[in-house]
Each structure stands twice: as structure tokens, then as C-alpha cells.
Specification:
Peptide Deformylase, single chain, 3 helices, globular, alpha+beta
């Protein structure tokens, strides 16, 4: 198990922990505080998106810009306190998003590699994932898409889909590694806090028609 620890201070936000509304999104904030491990929303399965409207498009924009500001490879809606089945990714220079994803492993090849999480900032642990995946879902306009990915893209899609099911990547560790990881995380500077504001500057939002990695209509 490999571990990396950040020495930077996070601008944390204190406050009562409470689940958000599961089926609405009415913010206009762009870069949004990211919820930290321990917040109940991260353990609550997200609800399917029903309305493909301007609020959903705003959510995708906020997820994308918050992900970039935090320097992440992906971000799921529950991580910003929204219980909807939406996530974004940024892998190999390509930005994408998926709504109501259905992910299927392809083949039986696995790899174990260091993995981190924006809701567990400053730490990385070796995590076993399928090397190849296929995923179907919709974009923010309601168009059906299919994604086929391997290695980093496959890892990002699996990681973010776990968030939509209330699963954190540390849950994927074996019992011994998970116990060791939780012991380390108990001493994290952010332990007991609710959220933090990403310190980076967001990159420009992607165009309305986004580049999608290995994606095609299904």
C-alpha cells in the first residue's frame, strides 16, 4: 500500500452535516465546496436524473470547474452535496461527463495502482480496479452515449460511479489495507470537517459539444 500526504492547509468549512435535496439543483456558484469523508451525503446512494434541464447543465458546469480547480481526474455530484447520478472526468486532456451511468467491466484483467479522492484529499492508496470498462448513459442534453475506456479512464469511471452508490475507494481495499488506511486518515488535518474550497483556478469550461473519450451513441 502506497501513501502520499499533502502538506498544504485546506480552507475547510465547518457546519452541521446534513443530506442535501436529492432531486434538485438550483445553485449558481461554479466552483463549489467539496464534501469530505465523514459527510453522510458520501454514503447515500444518489437518485437518477429525471429532468435534463438548465439546472442539470449548471450542475455539470459546476462539477467540471470544481474538478479542475481541485486538480482532480473526476468529480461526482454527491461530492458537492448533490444526490444525483452525475459525474465528470478529466483524463489525458479530455473532459467528459456522464448522467445515470451503467458501467460494465470488460474482460477479467485487473490492475492495482495508487488511487486518490478529492473527498479524501492528500492521500493515495493502491486500489484494485478492472482495466477495461464500458459505460452507457446520457449527456447533459439527454443524448445517449457509450464510453469505452481502459486504465486511467476506466479507473476514473469506476471511482466516480462508486460515489453515486455511496461507496468510497477505501472500501475497495482488502481488510488489512483498509484498516491501515483508516488509521492514517483518522489523523488527517481535515478529519471532522465538513467540506473545503478548492484552492486552484478553474480552467475554461468545455464547449457545449464536448470531446468524449472513445464514446459513441448506443
Amino acid at each position: 500500500m502506497r501513501l502520499g500526504v499533502s502538506g498544504s492547509q485546506l480552507p475547510v468549512i465547518n457546519g452541521p452535516r446534513r443530506p442535501p435535496s436529492r432531486d434538485t439543483y438550483d445553485r449558481r456558484v461554479t466552483v463549489t465546496p467539496i464534501r469530505l469523508m465523514g459527510d453522510p451525503v458520501l454514503r447515500t446512494p444518489a437518485a437518477p436524473v429525471v429532468d435534463f434541464d438548465k439546472e442539470l447543465r449548471q450542475l455539470v458546469t459546476d462539477l467540471t470547474e470544481t474538478m479542475h480547480a481541485a486538480g482532480g481526474a473526476g468529480l461526482a455530484a454527491p461530492q458537492i452535496g448533490v444526490g444525483l447520478r452525475v459525474f465528470t472526468w478529466y483524463v489525458d486532456g479530455e473532459v467528459g461527463h456522464l448522467v445515470n451511468p451503467d458501467v460494465t467491466p470488460v474482460g477479467e484483467e485487473f490492475e492495482e495502482a495508487a488511487e486518490g479522492c478529492l473527498s479524501i484529499p492528500g492521500f493515495r492508496f493502491d486500489t484494485r480496479r478492472n482495466v477495461y470498462i464500458a459505460a452507457t448513459g446520457w449527456n447533459m442534453h439527454g443524448d445517449p452515449i457509450r464510453i469505452e475506456g481502459s486504465h486511467m479512464l476506466a479507473r476514473a469511471v469506476q471511482h466516480e460511479t462508486d460515489h453515486l452508490d455511496g461507496v468510497l475507494f477505501v472500501d475497495r481495499l482488502d481488510a488489512e489495507a483498509r484498516a491501515a488506511a483508516l488509521a492514517v486518515l483518522a489523523d488527517a488535518e481535515w478529519n471532522g470537517e465538513q467540506a473545503y474550497v478548492p484552492a486552484g483556478d478553474p480552467v475554461p469550461s468545455p464547449p457545449t459539444t464536448e470531446p468524449v473519450v472513445k464514446a459513441s451513441p448506443h
